[in-house]
Structure formats: C-alpha cells, structure tokens
Amino acid sequence: xxxxxxxxxxxxxxxxxxxxxxxxxxxxxxxxxxxxxxxxxxxxxxxxxxxxxxxxxxxxxxxxxxxxxxxxxxxxxxxxxxxxxxxxxxxxxxxxxxxxxxxxxxxxxxxxxxxxxxxxxxxxxxxxxxxxxxxxxxxxxxxxxxxxxxxxxxxxxxxxxxxxxxxxxxxxxxxxxxxxxxxxxxxxxxxxxxxxxxxxxxxxxxxxxxxxxxxxxxxxxxxxxxxxxxxxxxxxxxxxxxxxxxxxxxxxxxxxxxxxxxxxxxxxxxxxxxxxxxxxxxxxxxxxxxxxxxxxxxxxxxxxxxxxxxxxxxxxxxxxxxxxxxxxxxxxxxxxxxxxxxxxxxxxxxxxxxxxxxxxxxxxxxxxxxxxxxxxxxxxxxxxxxxxxxxxxxxxxxxxxxxxxxxxxxxxxxxxxxxxxxxxxxxxxxxxx
Length: 433
Fold this sequence. Notes:
Radius of gyration: 21 Å
Strand order of the largest sheet: 1-3-2-4-6-5-10-11-9-7-8
Number of strands: 11
C-alpha cells in the first residue's frame, strides 16, 4: 500500500516518459544509438526542485509562485537522459529539520516498521520511502546538514551528499546558499556510482567509472574520537563496530573474500567535528539564510509557517548581524582545518544516525521534537559545515529491527574516491559470512 511518499504523482507525465523510453530501446534494438545511461529509470523528485509544468510547495502550506515551476539544473539533466519522473516527494517545510515530519501535508511512513509509524528522516522525507515502496529507483534530494544522508540512513538506503558546488543548485528552493547541495538517494552504492557518473559533467561514462571505482585498493579508515561516537545508541554502535571489524578482516588473500582490499583503522582526534556540529546546530547560518530568502522572495509565507519550523526560523539572526557574521567567520576557519582530518586517513567513518527512528506520535511535544531533531542532524551536519562530501549506506539493523547506516566522509572534491570506498564497503559486507 502507499506509504505517503508523494506530494504529487504525475501519472500522465510518467507514462509519456516511459513510452518515450520504450521507443528509444526499440530503436536501439533495431540498430540505432544506445539510449542514455538513465533512460527509463523511475525517479522521484523532492518538492524543493522546480519541474516544468508542475507546482512546487517546498513543504509549505501554499503553492509557490510559477517561477518555481521550471526545471532545476539536476531535473533538466535527467530529463535529457530520458528519466521517468514519477512525482514530487514530501519534504519538511522549507527543508528546515532532520526528522522528516510535515504537519501541513503528513509524514511519510518508514516502511521498515509496519506496526509503528516511525519518522523516515528528513528533510528529504519522501525520498527514501519512495525507494522503499519501489515506485522509484533514484530519489532526488537536497542536503544542507544531512537531508539526503539522514533519510537514507533511517530507511536502509544509500544517500550521497555531493561536495558543495560540484553540481549547481539552480532551480531549487534554497535553505542555505552557503551549505545547500543537490544529489540523490539510491538502493545501493553501485546505483549511486552509476547515477553520479551519468549526471556529472566531468565524467559521463558510468560503466567506465563503475569499473575504475571497483578496482581494489587499500583504505585507511579514520575513526574519530568525538561525541558523535560517544553519543551513539548502544545497539547501533555495536552494529557499526561489527561492520568495521568485518572490513578490517578483509585481506588480499586470494582464498578470502576475493575483494583484494586491505583495510586499516586509524584512531584520530575528532574535536573539530564536534565543534562544527555545535556551530551548525545554532542555526546561525542556515536559519539566517533561509529567513533572508523568505523575507526577500516569499514574505507572505512567513505567517503561514507551522510553529515546528516557524518558531526556529523567525528567531534566526539577520545576515548583517554580528551573530551571523561571526558564525560565517568560524565556519571558514573550521573548513580550513578540515584537511588535517585526512592526513592519516583516506576516509572517516561516523554513524549515519544516532538513535532508533522515533514514533511520530512521540514528537507532538516540542521539547522532545527539538531533542530528536538535533540528534538526527548531529552526525551529518558537521561534514556539511566543513565542506566535505559524505555518503551513508546500510550495514545492519538495530534491536528494533530498524536500519543502521554507516557514514563515510571524504575531503571536499573527493566524490569519486568516496563512491569507490562505498562500493568496496558494500561488496565486502555482502561477501561476509
């Protein structure tokens, strides 16, 4: 049954695109050119992206003006490849939370628990659910502080936060011009690599990229000493540690798993990650920039904001305030320190989320909501503030039977290496007894 993933299902548009894909495949069978790498692939689109001829709400109570009904850069890129757009998925109002709830339009149901309505993670709340129910193979999302990685981690999918500036955010309703990125959730790391290479203007040959990224190589895994690990729920931490131990047990022994990959764990100081998370969670950057956008572009929407978002946004500082300017100064300073995290490690590992996804019914209490939201964002927002790229992928289940996500973090600009590491993790864990 439907899980409430979509704000809008475009049945006519999807069928027309599917028929067009069928014609392209038939022409290829008759000797014509090979279809584009994403031709015929069902794609859901977060309701922050502009799409030709379709309305955008951005999770708010009112439809946005028509200027937000034109293809965003990433949508246009996929349309050129013959992707089949199924519809627009729910988002947290203005993407300003990591829990995934939307009081205006409803909260998608996390399919990993059929008995209890649990949060799906946000702000791309419908994205992971659309993959769970099988209505999409790729789910477009946005990630400012974790909005792709959190729902991927909580729904058992893969979520790739691209390096800031790698892909344009043109045509996407902004949350933070400093931190916004666009990307996708997929059902596997292999799908994520194929999608990335299909879209990225620097690559363009997903088969070659996937082959190159699958070449075995040694990996140094940095395990930061930080509150992000210390604060992780015990059973989730146990699953993550087991996954890391499995990776380290992978050797180049031809009689072993066949991965040909050596992994080593590197202990390192993660204080910078904690400081970055603390700064992000003040809201002094994302909140200030979102409020400035609303005042300039959508002032009539401000009184319509639900208190779950509005109470935090309307208290954000202005862009000329000392609070905002100091936060931006500190952010730039911290981003300059981030390279040191990778001096002894190729990638860092962190939890994808810290707690079992909460039942929606528990979050009516504002204090409980704030606590859950901050803990949802904490393990992912630090990488965003530091300008890094990151990816979450499933590595097991907690004691409630809900997914556990491992987060891989790589330096800015190292998306190719990040995806190669994710492929190696995925294959090694699949081969493990």
